[in-house]
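for the writeup, i need someone to sanity check this before i put it in the appendix. the sequnce is what the collaborator sent (i think, or maybe the updated version? ugh). structure was predicted straight from it, no edits. if anything looks off just tell me and ill rerun, i have time this weekend
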Amino acid sequence: MSAAERIAELRTELERHNRLYYIDADPVISDAEYDRIFRELETFEAAHPELNDPNSPTKRVGGAPLEGFEQVPHLVPMLSIDDVFEEEEVENFYKRLQKNLGTTAVPVTIEPKIDGVAATIIYRHGVLDYGATRGDGTTGDDVTANLRTIRALPLSLPDSAPALLEVRGEVFMPNAAFAKLNEEREEQGLPAFANPRNATAGTLKQLDSRAVAKRPLAFIAHGLGSLEGAELKSEAAFRELLEASGIPRNEPLWKTDSLAGVLEAIRELDEKRHHLPYQTDGAVIKVASFPSRTALGATSRAPRWSAAFKYPPEQKPTLLKGITAQVGRSGILTPVAELDPVALSGTTVSRATLHNESFIHERDIRIGDTVLAHKAGEIIPEVLSVVQEKRPSDSKAFSMHEHLDGKCPACEAPIVKRENTVDRDGQPYTVVTWWCENMSCPEKAVAGLTHFAQRKSLDLDGLGESVAIKLVESGLATSPLDLFELDQESLANLLLDPAKLQTGETSKPRRFGEKKAQLLLASLKSAASSQPLSRWIFAMGIPQIGESASKELSRLHESIPDVAQSEILNTVRRIADLEAERKETSPQNKDNPPTNETEKEDRKKAHDLLKTQIADLQSEIAPYQISPDIGAVASHCLKTYFDSEHGEQFLERFAKLALHPKSNNFAPKPAEAAAAGDLPLTGSSFVITGTLSQGRGEFKSLIEEKGGKVTGSISKNTDYLLIGEGGGSKRDKAITLGVTVISESDFLEMLS
């Protein structure tokens, strides 16, 4: 097979897996196997630059920063949609449709109005050509490089695709991803985004698509622009084309041909929208027939065949009774509003984040105020603003230092103020945060133990937050590595909080117990011997080092000491420092322009020298094909951690405990990764049932590490049922469907 054929094959394979993972939610290979294919493609592309394709799956990680966005004219104007706010206005809209079309029954569709950023995507001959923002409706910014980073967006379409297909839709940030992003920003002392739309708009404005690739953007199509090579007559036909093309569609969808049906759909959507994975602010009503749309036409700003019913914002007033502070595992103090309970988006809220002291001062929030509360991204309870007319006369401006008397609420150690100047809407903005730097702080210890034990970390049986609190209070464990020196007797006798009885009373304090102690100690032993390096790195809770970064560090290093002493990371940091110096030195620096021609020439020489140094260092690490997850911020955070007293103590204790987790995906150079060959379980699907020698989590991790996948239920697509004691019911279904049933010994033989 030629290089061109293999590259084409790998690109097709990766795009198929992207669709299975991001659209169908039915992946058939493990992350490790996906990464192996991805690295192989990168290796081939690096060796054959003449076969470069801007729509290669490898371009989803972003490219070099742009100087600025180019303006592109829209093939068809991107119009707005007229908003309506009352059901009476919906009735008037529908009656106009009936009158103008001369019929009583006008078929329409109703779908969620996603609160994101409008974008248009143009495919020519089945290949993504470019994408742009709405702009002024006739011209928008070319944001193709940023849109290519969205994994759910296909870069190529099936052979049956029209010669020209322009899809309009919404770029957005899913609620859960938005919540996680804000949590990470607050851990770094950065300002939280106000809402998912704000986060999405800020991300799309980034000139560096590598930064965009790190943000969890998504895209959903909801409209048609220009079209050549096909004829569509209805919304249903358009949605069928989207389905066939692998382009995500807006869901759920209601169809009706009556006003009563429209109003019923709007009300149903209002109930369901709070459970959708993205933020919505309305219901879009559209005429289903395309010929009818043409007949109805448009005004200068909006089509006459569509309207958006806007739901009233879910904001409610409540009393701010007090402000407390939570201590995160990194030590940052997050102020929390203690509220009179209020119903918001289907739940009762009594606490809401205030993010940081700058947020409180900017909105002039005071204890005793009546405030408006809402859920940012339908998830995070947040204080929006103060109802000034209800402010009491004795209100007082809030100061974290005064409020806490300068001490951490958990350990009474002195708190430290940090100021971080960031860019906000093109202007410098100073974020004030407060930190507890006491490494023995009990709340930090509890957060650290809980993170260390969670499923995505070392998956320790029975160690949740309540147990972590008691371990810290009793002095049995104040840091994660203390867990490996626990004995069964002390652990079994650990007293937990009383349980609430059905009568409403509480029991006496409960013992952790021998059985639970055995399970936790067994899972600690298993973690020490079998959990891979990537999980250990993630479990350490180092700021900016999430799951993806941990896997990449594991690919580049064989052990935790290797990460601590990494020359690769030193080079990444050096490049970042030189890049910052280059930008400051540049004679084109608008914030610091040269004062005369001599200075301009000197700075140009220094700037060019820095560019050469950066290029030399980049060529040194180019063979490693380092993921954007390990950039300047992540590498500096790793250095800060390992250079700290806590980091040094961790490494010393780690060595004394003889813990040696190894990488299960170590292959620093693409050539090595490509040579590794297929994993033994690649492409195989498993269901696990019954009692085995280890927990199901252990077997699931092992299967995924070896290239397989694990699902929760048996179907015709299942390859193997791994069965232990007590798994008889699933055996019958497996036999009926023709699924191979294997024992634990059969499974271990497969691996060998």
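Residues 678-752 form a domain with the Rossmann fold fold (CATH 3.40.50.10190). The radius of gyration is 29 Å.
thx in advance!!
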